[in-house]
Design goal:
single chain, about 200 residues, NADH Oxidase, 5-stranded antiparallel beta sheet, binds flavin mononucleotide
């Protein structure tokens, strides 16, 4: 089941802070779906446009939009996967590299979030983190629309020949392949960190 996405607010529109029990439920219970369980149907063209619009609503120091999207779907995605598969044999562990490609081939849609860097006042670290925020926003927006999603990098996010096939330019990095589709299996809760163990209260 999918849900409709409210229209984008107008520039300058007042946006009151409103409590959202539904959002809290999503945050408290959301889980990535295994990419290999993601199947058709994926988002249609309108839903994909909504997803990208939501994904791009993230903090961005300096308003640089230090990220862009590459969409992989349908026959083009299959052609991309075929070219990446041809590179798997030359990876350090070809069997593992080939097996990992099931995450690429199974889902009907991949939104590749590409981190860009503009030299200037805003540190590179902050621009890269903004791209991670886009990935996380997509990981929240997809299940809110009724789709399973998973944030994957795998070897083809780093292999120079794979990056060339994808069209990643100098200074750009793949922040993630966000795989989206209908989850054939409901994910199960995984181990979570002991938040108290990694939290300290600073005192003077
Ligand atoms: C930057 C990044 C890259 C990841 N790359 C992979 C990957 O290549 N392969 C993999 O199996 N999981 C990868 N993961 C982990 C998956 O996203 C995993 O499903 C996720 O940690 C599950 O947590 P969740 O259910 O809380 O979303 C990556 C996570 C992040 C943040």
């Amino acid at each position: 089941m999918t849900a409709s996405v409210p229209a984008a607010p107008a520039f300058g529109e007042t946006l009151p802070i409103e409590a959202s029990p539904e959002m809290l439920r999503l945050l408290a219970r959301r889980r990535s779906a295994s990419a290999m369980t993601l199947t058709a149907p994926g988002p249609d063209a309108g839903q994909l446009a909504d997803l990208l619009r939501l994904g791009a609503r993230v903090p961005d120091h300096g308003k640089l939009s230090p990220w862009r999207f590459v969409i992989l779907q349908g026959e083009a995605k299959a052609a991309f996967a075929a070219r990446i598969t041809a590179l798997a044999a030359s990876q350090a562990n070809p069997v593992k590299a080939t097996a990992a490609l099931r995450k690429l081939t199974s889902p009907p849609l991949a939104i590749v979030v590409i981190s860009r860097f503009t030299a200037g006042e805003i540190p590179e670290w902050e621009q890269r983190m903004s791209a991670a925020a886009v990935c996380m926003q997509l990981l929240l927006a997809a299940p809110a629309m009724g789709y399973g999603a998973n944030w994957i990098t795998d070897w083809y996010s780093y292999d120079p020949r794979a990056l060339e096939i994808l069209g990643v330019a100098e200074g750009e990095q793949v922040a993630g392949f966000l795989y989206v589709g209908t989850a054939a299996e409901a994910p199960q809760e995984r181990v979570r960190p002991d938040v108290a163990a990694i939290t300290t209260v600073w005192r003077p």
